[in-house]
Amino acid sequence: MQPTSSPRILQGALPGLIWRHRLALFCVCLAVFCYGVFRPESPPELFYESDKAMHVLAFMGLGLCAALAACGHRWAWAVWPALIVAAPLVEWLQHALQPATRDFSLGDITGNLIGVALAALVWGLVLRWLKLAANNETSDS
C-alpha cells in the first residue's frame, strides 16, 4: 500500500525515490540478510570476533533500509520495536534451523541490538539534518 504523503522533512529529500523503489531496496536487503544469517555454515572469520561486527553491520543495514521503506507510513515507528524483537529471535531461529553448524550466542544478540541502535541513531540524525536543512531553506526565502 503506497503512502499518501511523506513526512514534510522528506518531501524535498526523496523525490526520485518513490515508495516501491524503497520497498524493493528493503526486499533486496532482507534477502541478503536472510542468506547471511540462515546459510548452513558460519562466515569466515576475518579477524577475532569478526562475526560480531558482521551482526552489527547486518542489523544496521537492515534497520536503515526498513526505516527508509516505512517512511511516510503511519506504522513507521513499528520498525524499531520489530527489529529489537528480531535481534534475539533471528539468533535463536538460526540455531534451530542449523543446530549442527550454528550456535546460539548472546554476543551475536548484543551485536544485533547494537546494529539496531546505530541504525536508529543514524536515522534520527538524518531526519534531524533534513529538518534543519528544510528550516534553513524556509528562513532564507
Descriptive notes:
Helix 4 packs antiparallel against helix 5 (106-140). The chain has a domain at 51-141. 70% of the residues lie in helices and 0% in strands. It has five helices and no strands. The chain has 141 residues and is mainly alpha-helical. The chain starts with 7 loop residues before the first helix and ends with a helix. It has helices at residues 8-11, 19-38, 50-70, 79-97, 106-140. The model is unreliable at 1-6 (pLDDT under 50).
How is this fold's topology laid out?
Layout: H1 8-11, H2 19-38, H3 50-70, H4 79-97, H5 106-140
Helix pairs in contact: 2-3, 3-4, 3-5, 4-5
The largest sheet, given as strand count, sense and whether it forms a barrel, is: none
User: Helical element count?
Assistant: 5
Mean pLDDT: 85
End-to-end separation:
35 Å
Helix content: over 70%
Number of strands: 0
What is the structural class? mainly alpha
Please give the radius of gyration in angstroms. 17 Å
In short:
The protein has 141 residues and is mainly α. The protein has a domain at 51-141.
Labels describing this entry:
single chain, 141 residues, mainly alpha, 5 helices, 0% strand, elongated, disordered N terminus
